[in-house]
Sequence to fold (236 residues):
Amino acid sequence: MSTTPVLQIQDLNAWYGESHVLHGINLSIASGEIVCLLGRNGAGRTSTLRSILGLVGNRTGSIQVDGQEVIGKPTHQVAQMGIGYCPEERGIFTSLTCEQNLMLPPKVGNKMAMSIDEIYEMFPNLKERRSSPGGKLSGGEQQMLSIARILRTGAHLLLLDEITEGLAPVIIQKLGQVVRTLRDKGYTVVLVEQNFRFASKLADRNYVIEHGQVVKTVERNELEASQEELKILLGV
Ligand SMILES: Nc1ncnc2c1ncn2[C@@H]1O[C@H](COP(=O)(O)OP(=O)(O)OP(=O)(O)O)[C@@H](O)[C@H]1O
Ligand SMILES: [Mg+2]
Fold:
C-alpha cells in the first residue's frame, strides 16, 4: 500500500495581489482520510483550497498531490490530477436542468468517475428533480448537485467548502451520510467547515486555521480532550 499522502502542504504562503493571506500552512492527508479545516471568518480556509488549484495570486512553499509538486502548474493541469473543488458559491448552472448540469463536467481522473445511475443512487432527490432547472432546486438539492458534479469528473481528492452553510439540520445529516459513503468508496475529502458539530463527527483530523496559519491540529481521538480549547479558538 502506498504511503505517499494524497495531499501534502508545506510552509505554504499565499497572496492576493499585495495582500499576504497564508503564512506557512502545513498539513497532510492520507488516502481515504477525511480532514477538516476549521476557523473563524477570514481565517484562510478557502484560500488554502484555492491555493491548491492555483486560484490565488502568488504562492510559495510546497503543495504535493500524490507526491507531485503542483505549485507552478496551471489550474487545469492540477485539476487533471484528480481534484474536485466544490466552491462556497456552489457553481452550478441555474438555467440548465439538474441532469444537464451532471452531463457537463469534464473527465479529470481515470478510474473513479461516477455514472449518472450511480449518482442517482446516491442522491435520489436529484433523480426526482432531473428535469428541473438548477435554479429551481432547493438549497440542499443545489448543494447535492454541486457535489454530484465533481463526482462525475473522476476526481479522487474532493475539496468541499462550507457544504452545510445555510441548510436545515435534516439536510446536513444527509450530507454527513454522503461524505461517509464517499470515504467508504475510497475518496479522500477535505472539508472546510464552520459547523464544528458536523465536522467533528466526520473528520479523522481537524486543523484549526487562524490568520493564515494552522494553530492547532486535533486528531479524532483527541477531540474529547480538546473540546474547550476548540470552542475558544473557534468562538463557538
Ligand atoms: N479575492 C481576494 N482578494 C483579496 N483578499 C482576499 C480575497 N479572498 C479572500 N481574501 C482575504 O483573505 C483572507 C482569508 O480569506 P478566506 O476566504 O481564505 O477565509 P475563510 O477562512 O474561507 O473564511 P470565510 O469563508 O468565512 O470568509 C481574508 O482576510 C480575506 O479578506
Ligand atoms: Mg471561506
